[in-house]
């Protein structure tokens, strides 16, 4: 996979999560999840984007580590939604799968980046 592909994937994951979050009900739990997932899902792409303008390998690795933490958090909130409200639509499943894939890809980049 080319790095530009990952830039596009992380960007679209953030956009697609925000679109999905618009469909949540307005109860207190959903408001909390909307806020937390909205922040973490968009932060993945923002941090990965920032990693591309690195000043050093250490800076690059640090930014990718932050993106990885945000991907893990996004996956967490999506799993909460699945277990709390039984979300299982195709659209939701795509988000859940993409969050897991992004997590694995970013972890591989972190592990393979030698300082």
From TrEMBL:
Signal peptide: none annotated. It comes from the Bacteria. InterPro entries: 23S_rRNA-intervening_sequence (IPR012657), 23S_rRNA_IVS_sf (IPR036583). NCBIfam families: four helix bundle protein. This is Four helix bundle protein. It comes from Chryseobacterium cheonjiense. PANTHER family: FOUR HELIX BUNDLE PROTEIN.
């Amino acid at each position: 996979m080319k790095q530009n592909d990952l830039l596009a994937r992380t960007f679209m994951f953030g956009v697609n999560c925000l679109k999905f979050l618009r469909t949540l009900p307005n109860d207190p739990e959903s408001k909390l999840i909307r806020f937390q997932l909205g922040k973490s899902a968009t932060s993945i792409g923002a941090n990965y984007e920032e990693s591309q303008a690195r000043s050093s390998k250490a800076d690059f690795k640090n930014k990718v580590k932050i993106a990885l933490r945000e991907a893990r958090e996004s996956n967490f909130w999506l799993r909460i939604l699945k277990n709390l409200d039984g979300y299982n639509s195709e659209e939701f499943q795509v988000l859940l799968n993409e969050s897991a894939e992004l997590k694995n890809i970013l972890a591989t980049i972190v592990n393979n980046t030698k300082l």
